[in-house]
Amino acid sequence: MKKRRNWKSRELYSKLLTPNIFLVRLDGRNFSKVLENFEKPYDLKFARIMVECCKDIMREFNAGFAFTFSDEATFLMSDIFGCRLEKIDSIIASEFASRVSLRLGFPVGFDSRIIFANLDEIADYLAWRQDEAWRNHLNSYAFYTLLKEIGNRKKAQKMLEGKKSPELHDILHERGINPAKTPAWQRRGIILYWKEIELEKEFQGKIVKFTRRRIVEEWNPPLFDSDGGRALVDNIVKEWFKNG
Ligand SMILES: Nc1nc2c(ncn2[C@@H]2O[C@H](COP(=O)(O)OP(=O)(O)O)[C@@H](O)[C@H]2O)c(=O)[nH]1
Ligand SMILES: [Mg+2]
């Protein structure tokens, strides 16, 4: 048999490892095009699809939480696939993308990256993504409001170029839109996490108590930069460890 090069040794990245606990963030590829025919700036149907797919991933890989807005989702995970980075990135992205595709009814893709975070830094990471959700929200509402008014995408984009949050606020207020009154999930994102709930059922004539882990969907999360937000994140992490 012809001698082959040692191809196994060319799998140069297969030994890259993640830490034991890490965050994974997925982002939809080309979703400004993919969601062209969906409700703008926000489509509740699409947000529900993202939430359902996040729940699937949480169950499949016992993720500690999922935080999603727009076409992105972050998961807290520990020690899967021997912490092999290529495996984790590719499997989580493909498992998520296949589920979103099935629910949308056409094929879509997601990229994936690993983020190193200590447990006491997770609220800060989430606050960072929540800032992005808020910026997106102001931008999208301003863009679609101007587009409706002037009917020209390029002109609407031009009018928003270099505008900071207070100016975007003004554009919306002048047109009767209060960006602090839109649905909370559009401004703050949606967090999903595990909670142990007590249940009881009758067994051989007796009431038996037992606990079950359920995923809670929080469509109105606190600001992760607030005391309430940090306390929620602490609890989520504790609950995950208890059952991990
Ligand atoms: N119509 C619609 N579009 C959305 C919604 N959520 C996200 N998107 C689109 O998805 C894009 C996500 O941003 P980004 O990842 O930077 O863009 P991408 O590179 O095209 O995926 C947004 O700019 C929107 O165009 C939604 O609920 N409705
Ligand atoms: Mg995207």
Structure explained in plain terms:
The structure is a single chain. By secondary structure, the protein is an alpha+beta fold. The protein has two domains: 14-125 and 188-244, 2-Layer Sandwich (Alpha-Beta Plaits), CATH 3.30.70.3000; 126-186, no CATH class. 45% of the residues lie in helices and 22% in strands. It is built from eight helices and six strands. It has helices at residues 31-34, 44-61, 85-104, 122-150, 153-160, 165-174, 184-188, 227-243, and strands at residues 21-28, 65-69, 72-78, 110-115, 190-203, 206-218. Strands 4-1-3-2-5-6 form a six-stranded antiparallel beta sheet, sandwiched between helices. Strand 2 and strand 3 form a beta hairpin. Helix 4 (122-150) crosses helix 5 (153-160). The radius of gyration is 21 Å and the shape is globular. The model has no long low-confidence stretch (mean pLDDT 96). Bound molecules: guanosine-5'-diphosphate and magnesium ion. The site of magnesium ion has 4 residues, from strand 1.
